[in-house]
Amino acid sequence: MLSYPSGMTVSSRALGVLSDALRAHRNQRRTRWRKLSPGRQALLVVAHLRKGETYADLACGFRVGTSSTVYRYLREALDLLAAMAPTLEQAIEVAKGKASVIVDGTLLRIDRVGMACGYDRAFYSGKHKAHGVNVQVIADPVGRLVWISPPLPGARHDMGAAREHGIIDALTAHEIPAAADTAYQGAGPMVAVPQRRRRLDPDTGRYRRLSRNQKEVNRAHARRRGPGERVNAELKNWKVLRRIRSSPNRAGQLIAAVQTLMIAND
């Protein structure tokens, strides 16, 4: 079997966080001998999350023999990372120290959705014309991740998802200013959204155009929301989340694990 070296952009800080967690876990369980050190196991896990490497490729690249060993290494690390992910309450405490935050939703596509009995319909997003899960992302004004919500079926509207997770109520209760797109219209006084296109003109049958001042307000608002879009793009730079191939029931663990590494990287 032939192999070749490959490159991967990864933060040494993120690797250090995972390595320390694995080392502490091994000491707690008094695990005897393993073929990979905590540092090498952390690198294996990040390679899977960052590059979407298959179990067989990882087993070959790290010389651990079988893909079942890779599976155990991954499950152990993903459980640790998911447990380290912040809760909404912890994220709100961080957000209280910011001038404002950005709230945005994104769809993470998913493959393994059962088609029987219409189970897949809840995961089908009419906007994106694809199956996926909806996650709500909170970012700070300079584009650093604050929180990623647990996933909901992709058919859920962003506003409904934000309310279900308690994001809107938390921002209102703590008076944290937020910027969002028009999907969050009606979220309350703390969530600023762009000016919407005016209603139909009964005389011409066309939509009334926005005034120059309203267009300027929308452009300024778009610049304010820009860092949040970059966080969504960075989230999808983790190739394992570009198209989730596991069961929807395990998508939450993957997202939480990636969230922990992204926050450690900031």
Automatic annotation (TrEMBL):
Its cofactor is a divalent metal cation. Residues 34-86 form the Transposase Helix-turn-helix domain. It comes from the Bacteria. Pfam families: DDE_Tnp_4, HTH_Tnp_4. Keywords: Metal-binding. Residues 103-261 form the DDE Tnp4 domain. Residues 211-230 are annotated as: Disordered. This is Transposase family protein.
